[in-house]
Automatic annotation (TrEMBL):
Protein's UniProt name: Reverse transcriptase zinc-binding domain-containing protein
Domain Reverse transcriptase zinc-binding: 1-51
Native source species: Ficus carica
Amino acid sequence: MVWRAFHGALPLRSHLVRRGVMVDLNCPRCGHMEDDSCHALWMCPAVREIWMQLAIVGILERLKGRPVSALCLHAATHCHRDDFNVFCMILWAIWDEIANPKEVVSKHNWKAPKHGCVKLNVDVTIDDALGFIDIGVVARDD
């Protein structure tokens, strides 16, 4: 994925339009006028919050508005190896969220249990790509 980002080969909306696919160019997260790789992976307000939490953001901040290839190259040459690994993981996670948006299902039809009973509500999230399972359990009485 980092290789594809570096070489401008991600199937982002702007790239799809250049290949003749008719899609809306606006960013689906913030409505920005063109969803290119720099915006989608680095400049979109939805992902900037993530990047701003990193210790290496000062190194990367100088590249605002530059192509993702410049960002990747700069990170590879100026960041400590561990920081570069984190950079790659975050880049991949942002891309995974773009390429595989998660559908949120919400049902608000919870009913209290009968008097003297306990009701368990359970929710599970499985992420095969990252290899983890999150389980949440809430026990309620009347």
